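TASK: fixed-backbone design
INPUT:
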């Protein structure tokens, strides 16, 4: 099984650079998914809000880390409109769990396999007259 591209370390040119607003660098960057997970806990919440709602996280994950599954999960998180510490907690939980699953399985495609659909048929018992 080949290791997921999302687990590799990127060049500094492809790293994610955290800002709190346009032109205001937060002094933090991440060149890997593992670094990104740690930085979620370190950077100001204002930076997380800024990047989440601009679509920067999902774009970096899809383009630089080449992981469309995680990018979709971040987009889904964004649609629930978390803010503040709730955003930090939920983003950290999402990305850290995903990263750990990748490390265990080695592939993003196997870590989130949809379960098979099961059909259950209920049969009403025949009514008996007393």
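OUTPUT:
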């Amino acid at each position: 099984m080949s290791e997921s591209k999302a687990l590799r370390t990127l060049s500094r040119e492809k790293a994610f650079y955290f800002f709190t607003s346009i032109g205001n660098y937060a002094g933090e960057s991440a060149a890997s998914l593992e670094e990104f997970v740690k930085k979620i806990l370190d950077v100001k919440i204002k930076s997380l809000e800024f990047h989440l709602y601009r679509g920067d996280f999902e774009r970096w994950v899809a383009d630089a880390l080449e992981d469309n599954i995680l990018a979709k999960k971040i987009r889904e998180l964004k649609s629930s409109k978390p803010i503040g510490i709730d955003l930090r907690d939920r983003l950290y939980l999402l990305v850290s769990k995903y990263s750990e699953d990748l490390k265990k399985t080695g592939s993003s495609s196997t870590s989130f396999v949809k379960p098979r659909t099961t059909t259950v048929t209920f049969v009403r018992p025949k009514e008996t007259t007393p």
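COMMENT: The longest strand covers residues 24-30.
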